[in-house]
Amino acid sequence: MTPPVLLSAHGLEWRSGTRTILGPLDLEVVRGECLALVGPNGAGKTTLLRCLTGLLRPTRGEIAYAGRSFAKLSRREIARRIAYVPQIRPARVPLKVEEIVLLGRYPHLTAFQLAPRAEDFAAVEEALRVVGIEELRGRPVDELSGGERQAVFIAAALAQEAELLVLDEPTLHLDARHQRDLASLLLRLKTDTDHTVVLATHDLNLASLLGDRLLALSGGKVLATGAPAEILRPEVLDRLFRARFEIVRGGERPVTILDLGA
Amino acid sequence: MRPRTALLILLAVWIATMILTPLVGSQSISLGEILRGDPTAASIFWQLRLPRILLALLGGAALATSGLGFQTLFRNPLAEPYTLGVSSGAALGAVIALRFEGGQFLGLSLVGLASFAGALGATALIVGLALRRQGIETSTLLLAGVAVSLSCSAIILFLQYLADSTQTFRMVRWMMGGLSVVGYTEVLWLLPFVLGGSAALFVLRWELNLLLTGEELAASRGVDLARLRRYVLLATSLMIGALVAVAGPIGFVGLIVPHMLRRFVGHDHLYLVPACILGGGAFLTLCDAAGRTILSPAELPVGILTALLGGPFFLWLLVWRRRE
Fold first, then answer.
1. How far, in Å, CA of A21 to CA of A41, rounded?
2. Which of A142, A213, B10, B202 could form an S-S bond across to B278 if both were Cys, CB 3.0 to 4.6 Å?
């Protein structure tokens, strides 16, 4: 039995004026899998994520969640199913950790509800626990390190209790230790919870570690898709980035390094 | 300090302001005189001071909540009705009406109604800009506000040049902003706008909080940004338009009050909106009481006083923000 398709896009295309930024492409995300988007700058990774989260309306094509077209879902209905951790955030967010995580409950609130309910607070607690930042709850998020801050926004996405988690460049601007910590957090999420994950990253080793399937995007089109070992090969990477990579460790989840001198 | 404690203290200050400020002015009266039924004191209290205090409480609430709404919406600490061209649009409306000798309509002066229309016109212009280009940067909107402001000022100068000296005097006096000639009609006129506008901002508190985490994240959580912008701008410009119609432009309250309150109440709009209603009202009422006594027996229009406070505050905010 093949697992059911959670998110599907058919003939997806996004244009800015006359320029085609993305597509046309087809894409399916299967329930429970982790799909990692890789590709050079300007390949359309963020545009694709913004289409898949309903933030951008495609110029052409259709996206459906569990068979229901985005066109028939309200923004809130999409938000109850898909949680997004965007790459761009304001430099300063003047809120405390638990306030930010509680805001993840927004799509579940009804219009005239005065205060969050017990289940909202329970979801916040669970998210703080899973991410392991319970002791940071009362801290202003601006005082935290980059890695902790990213963990807070991931916790807020978890509090949203959506089945699909979409992450854009989760390890961007993080130093080596925080990259490793965040990678192990995401790996833990993947194994301990039953989230379906789509993430875009420049870090091929992160994609290799987390991705059940990699999708190589170039010039807005799908160059190749497959298991990490199929995509993370020097010849594919050379076509994708026009740069030389070496495989330092093979196997199912290869580790690559970029040869800057080549 | 916990936000709830801060709110309770603000409520106490608000009540104290309402009770004590009617007693001060060019002629001071005492609570005892009013309670004893002294006719002069009672008449000063009921006919002159109380409507003025009520107007200041409502007006300050309108200015502070509008400033808060603008600052969150534009994610810019310098946004307020004054810097966004809403007040200068209102001033232009009033000056046009004064130039062509306005009369009365439904108990309100045509000058007031023209300034109301001017405030809404300026907002419509800015909102039109915002809706024309989806995803227009908020800094662009701020600059658009400045441009609207400058254009209105230029037309005002032109109209003043054409006007005779009596008209010019009335225009200048109107633009100083003040609460001096006020009865209960003005209070009743302003009340629904302030209640409606600040209630709308309170209802939108979740959306406003989400905006603090960025427009992209807010949208991904299900906030309809275009609709939110429309609601906030509509609520604030109706409040400001209604206030300017009776009191003229009063600047910087929308800048000073929300910033001071954030230090005590935090950034959660659940507490910040009510805090601005109370704090803004108390602040404007105290400023007005000071204006009544500083040059006693003459009166200093409250608009001049808030502008005198606001300029240095603006500068302090710029330098303080730079250091952070």
1. 12
2. B10
- Rounded to whole angstroms, the Cα distance separating A111 from A76 reads 11
Q: Chain B residue closest to A73 (CA)? A: B222
Cβ atoms of A245 and A204 closer than 8 Å: yes
CA distance B182 to A247: 81
What Å distances lie between residue B281 and A72, B175, B205, B284, CA to CA?
45, 21, 20, 5
Contacts of B124 (CB under 8 A, 6+ apart): none
Measured distance CA(A214)–CA(A224) in Å, rounded: 8
According to DSSP, residue B224 is labeled -
CA distance B69 to chain A (A): 16
Strand partners for A7? A29, A65
User: pLDDT for B55-112, tens place per residue?
Assistant: 999 999 999 999 999 999 888 887 888 777 888 898 899 888 888 766 565 556 788 8
A257 φ/ψ sector (left φ>0, alpha ψ -120 to 50, else beta): beta
Phi-psi label, residue A191: left if phi above 0, alpha if psi -120 to 50, beta otherwise: alpha
Closest in B75, B213, B221 to A79, CB measured? B221
* Subunit contact B216:A103, Cβ cutoff 8 A: no
With vertex at residue A203, the alpha carbon angle to CA A198 and CA A208, rounded to the nearest 5 degrees, is 65
- For residue range B253-280, what is the model confidence (pLDDT) as tens digits? 999 999 999 988 999 999 999 999 999 9
User: Which chain A positions have a beta carbon within 8 Å of B271's beta carbon?
Assistant: none
Residues A60/B178, Cβ–Cβ less than 8 Å: no
B134, amino acid identity: Q
* One-letter amino acid for residue A177 of the chain: R
Quickly count helices (H) and strands (E) in chain A: 9, 12
Q: Are B217 and A157 in contact (CB under 8 A)?
A: no
Spatial CA neighbour of B266 closest among B318, B205, B323, B320: B205
SS (H, E, C) A188-246: HHHHHCCCEEEEECCCHHHHHHHCCEEEEEECCEEEEEECHHHHCCHHHHHHHHCCCEE
DSSP B135-203: T--HHHHHHHHHHHHHHHHHHHHHHHHHS-HHHHHHHHHHHH----S--HHHHHHHHHHHHHHHHHHHH
CA B109 to chain centroid, in Å, comes to 19
Spatial neighbors of B245 by CB under 8 A, at least 6 apart, are B90, B108, B112, B113, B115, B116, B119, B189
